[in-house]
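My current task is to audit a protein record that another person submitted. Thanks in advance; the entry in question is below:
***
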Amino acid sequence: MVLLSEVVEHHQDELERLHGHQLLPSHHQALQAMRRCRRQGGDLMVLRCGDCNHSLKVPHSCGHRSCPHCQHHDSQRWIERQQAKLLPVEYFLITFTVPAELRGLFWSQQRTTYDLLLKTAWQTVDSFARRDPKLKGITGAHAVLHTHSRRLDFHPHVHLIVPAGAIHQQKPRQRHTQGNQRTWQWKKRGYLFPAANLAKVFRGKCLEALRNAGLRVNAAIPRDWVVDCQSVGGGQKALVYLGRYLYRGVLPEKDILSDRDGLITFRIRDNTGAEQIQSVPGADFLWMLLRHVLPKRFRRTRDYGLLHGNSRKLLHVVQLLLRVVLPEPWQPQLKPPIRCPQCGGVMAIMAVRVREINPAPG
């Protein structure tokens, strides 16, 4: 395994020479952060064991959300938080993909187009749930934006994890009856919405949103877009799958195999799950990773409908209708303690951001 920080140090100059005109401020920030991640000679964290008094200095992690080494704890927290909202129903994973003809526009206007992609994907699902003759109600979704394919190409798409049902509010037939009657409406098992119809509506909503934002498409727009809708059972595995890529970059460090003779050799997996080994120049490798760094403070995960944070009361009603044993309020788990390499005791953090002072040569 090769550290990404070492790859950045070895090939950043060549990257800037070849792709400097394409690098965005977010790319420069990511490079700066990942270059110092866990590197000797940078800032250190001082630890001390409460049992044997052994002290230790370790390099800081960079904490950048595109670093493959960092943010594992935040990724796990997201998975746990979403699993606490799961309902005892069938879930579907719906994937909305941007056609190749629009990728140039999406690259040049990332913040705007990524936001529109997430919103129009949800608006499509929401409109189907409200108009479906069986549902006629409000559903929900966990949405996650991805910008890469398995081959790490620039391939914007969004995944929505959607329950196969909706809460329906029926107005009382008699005037003297107060309040609306709420029921949970189910879909037939193994079926939610037809993917072809989802694609047509998504195409119209996405193009309309781009026009309203003042963005012009300078390419022939295909008539048929790609939307996939498949059952994922109870939803747990789908959440774990999506959570893996939220805060840890697009390529795990364990898959960076070597940095030799100016070439980076790395491992990817194709759509069938088979491993493939590739080698590319170091500058091209870094550029391939940087294309998937999101704009600063852009939220790639969003909850919609009855799963939105502002819909806790509605979600509680659904849980009561489905006779869900309400879980304890979700509490973030503390990071696991750092263990002493000498005795295994818990080490306390004594100081952070300590600069290493090299002794003067004798």
Notes: The mean pLDDT is 87. The two ends are 36 Å apart (CA to CA). The longest helix spans residues 110-131.
